Amino acid sequence: MPRIAKELSALEVKRLVHPGADGLTTVAVGGVSGLMLQFTPAGGRSWVLRASVGGRRREMGLGSYPEVSLAQARDTAREFKDKIRQGIDPVEERRAARAELVVQRMRNLRFADAVDKCLSAKLDSFKNSKHRQQWENTLATYATPLLGEMQVADITVHDVFRVLEPIWQEKTETASRLRGRIETVLAWATVRGHRSGENPARWGGNLKELLPAPGKIAEQENHPAIQLADAPRWFSALRKRSGNGSRALEFAALTASRSAMVRGATWDEIDMATGLWVIPAERMKMKREHRVPLPSAAQQLLRALPRTKDNSLVFPASRGGQLSDMTLSATMARLHETDLAKGGAGFVDGVNTRPAVPHGLRSTFRDWVADRTNFAGEMAEVALAHQIASDVEAAYRRGHMVEKRREMMDEWANFLTEKSK
C-alpha cells in the first residue's frame, strides 16, 4: 500500500526550506496524492503534481509559491486528477488553450493596423514613394472610415461592399483600385494568420455578383459639370478661396486636367521658360507622355506658389504628401453650398442638376470648345489626353501645333476670367 504523505498546514508549508543539498528538492504536502512543493538551491519554490497520465508518469507545474497558495494548489491538483480519471490530459489541454490564446491574439488585428503592416511589408515592391502614398490615401479616404476599427477576422463581403458601393458608379476607376488594395491587405492578413477563409474583397465569384463590371459602366459617364454660363462666376469664387486645394482646383480648371495629374504634379515636370507641363507616361492613364501648354493665367498661378526644398510637389498637402481627391471635391462642394447660402443657384449640371464635381470641369471645357470656338474637336481631345487617331494626335504634338493648343488654352483661361482678348 503506497505511503500517504502527512497533510501539512499552510504555516508548516511556509516554514519549509531547501535542505541545502545540490539540485532540486521536493516535499510532499499531503491532502492530494502526488502534490509536491519543489525547491531550487537559489530559494525558488513551486508546485508540482506527479501523476500517471495514460500509463505515463507526468509532472505538471501548478504555479509558483507563494503566488499560488497551498489551498489553491490542492484545488488545482484535485481538478487535474478528476480530468485524468475522465481520460483528459491536463497538460495537453492547457497547451491547447495557450495555443488558442495565441491564435486569438493574432486574429485581434484592426484593419487600420493591418494596412500599416501590409504596406510596410510591401515597401520594396512599390516603384516609388508616390505609389505607396496613393495606396495610403485611397485606403485612408474610403476604406478606413468604415473598416478601420474592425478586426480583419470579422470583415465580410458585405462590409467591403459598403465601402465600394457609394463610389462604384461615379468613381469607378478609383473604386476598382480600392477593391484590389483591400483584397491585398486582407490577403496579407490571411497569410500572417490574422484571419482565415475566402478573401471578402475578391472579385470573381464574389463582389462580381453584387457590383456591375467596371467595363460595363458607361466609359464616358457624364460627371456633373458646371454650365458654361456659370463657369466665370464659379472661377471668380474659386480664386477668392485660399489653400493649396483651391489652387490645385484652379490649375486643374485652367489646364482641363484630371485631378490625379494635378495632385501628383512635381516642379521638375514644369518648364517655366517654355510654359510647358510635361507629364511622364507612367503618370498618365494612357501610359503616354502628355505635354500641356500652360496658359498665361496658369503660369502666373505657379509663380505665386511657395516652394520648399524638401518637397517636389507643386500642390502638397499640409502634411507634405499629395492632396487627396476628396480635398478638391470638398472645395467644389463648398463653392456650391456657399453660392446657395448667398441666394444663388449653386453650381449644378445643366442636365442632371447634380452639384458639379472636379472631373466635370473637363466636360465644361469640351462644351466651350464646341459651342463657343472654332478650334478643332481633335485639338480639344488631345488637350484632354483622350485617345484619337494616331496620325492626328501626332500632328497636334508637334511644335507649331502645341502653340496652337496654347492659343486655345489661353482663350479658355480668358473665358474663365472674363478677360477680353
UniProtKB/TrEMBL annotation:
<protein>
    <submittedName>
        <fullName>Integrase</fullName>
    </submittedName>
</protein>
<dbReference type="GO" id="GO:0015074">
    <property type="term" value="P:DNA integration"/>
</dbReference>
<dbReference type="InterPro" id="IPR002104">
    <property type="entry name" value="Integrase_catalytic"/>
</dbReference>
<dbReference type="InterPro" id="IPR013762">
    <property type="entry name" value="Integrase-like_cat_sf"/>
</dbReference>
<dbReference type="GO" id="GO:0003677">
    <property type="term" value="F:DNA binding"/>
</dbReference>
<dbReference type="InterPro" id="IPR011010">
    <property type="entry name" value="DNA_brk_join_enz"/>
</dbReference>
<dbReference type="Pfam" id="PF00589">
    <property type="entry name" value="Phage_integrase"/>
</dbReference>
<dbReference type="InterPro" id="IPR010998">
    <property type="entry name" value="Integrase_recombinase_N"/>
</dbReference>
<keyword id="KW-0238">DNA-binding</keyword>
<keyword id="KW-0233">DNA recombination</keyword>
<feature type="domain" description="Tyr recombinase">
    <location>
        <begin position="221"/>
        <end position="410"/>
    </location>
</feature>
<dbReference type="InterPro" id="IPR050808">
    <property type="entry name" value="Phage_Integrase"/>
</dbReference>
<dbReference type="GO" id="GO:0006310">
    <property type="term" value="P:DNA recombination"/>
</dbReference>
<comment type="similarity">
    <text>Belongs to the 'phage' integrase family.</text>
</comment>
<keyword id="KW-0229">DNA integration</keyword>
<dbReference type="InterPro" id="IPR038488">
    <property type="entry name" value="Integrase_DNA-bd_sf"/>
</dbReference>
<dbReference type="InterPro" id="IPR044068">
    <property type="entry name" value="CB"/>
</dbReference>
<dbReference type="InterPro" id="IPR025166">
    <property type="entry name" value="Integrase_DNA_bind_dom"/>
</dbReference>
<feature type="domain" description="Core-binding (CB)">
    <location>
        <begin position="109"/>
        <end position="190"/>
    </location>
</feature>
<dbReference type="InterPro" id="IPR053876">
    <property type="entry name" value="Phage_int_M"/>
</dbReference>
<dbReference type="Pfam" id="PF22022">
    <property type="entry name" value="Phage_int_M"/>
</dbReference>
<dbReference type="Pfam" id="PF13356">
    <property type="entry name" value="Arm-DNA-bind_3"/>
</dbReference>
